[in-house]
Hints:
Blueprint: H1 3-17, E1 27-28, E2 30-31, H2 44-48, E3 59-69, E4 75-77, E5 82-86, E6 90-95, E7 98-103, E8 112-117, E9 123-128, E10 131-132, H3 133-142, H4 146-160, E11 168-169, E12 173-177
Parallel strand pairs: 1-7, 3-12
Antiparallel strand pairs: 2-6, 3-4, 3-7, 5-6, 5-8, 8-9, 10-11
Amino acid sequence: MSRSALALCVPAFLAACVGAEVTTPPVNITPKVQADAVGLDVYARPRAQGNPVPRFRGQETLTIRTRGKGEKGGNTEISGLACTLDSGIYTARFQTPANVIVPNYGPNSPAVFVRCMHPDGRSGSTTVSPYNFTAAQRSNNAVGAGVLGALVVGAINAASINPEKDEFKYYPVTVNVK
């Protein structure tokens, strides 16, 4: 392939990987037990009463997109689908693509179930769990160290995991509508 052809293909390929811009305001969750919540913290009042509930660490932004068969037949991002998010302790309703603001409880953050419906009756769903972002960053740093370095860093990483101090996040969610 010539350099000029490659110069044209690379930006087109990268543009195809980028999802639709999220132009709507972020969506806040709705606690299932309103009386226990203060803002996003669904455990605020039980914690204030001395109950052993997860520590509130702030908020995370969870980006949610939908993909499926497009008008021209290929698998493409589909915008404007109605979706619900349910974690067991909070819910949210939105249209994709969306940024949903969720509470961060570190390793005690719940898995979230997302279901989206297409107007033609197709639907899709997925569940996503939080992951230890701090440990993932340490592991990524080990990749360039070769096999022996990766083993050493992996052992150090395993010994360094501290769920109380490590940062936890959710991967962006893509719901495939079939």
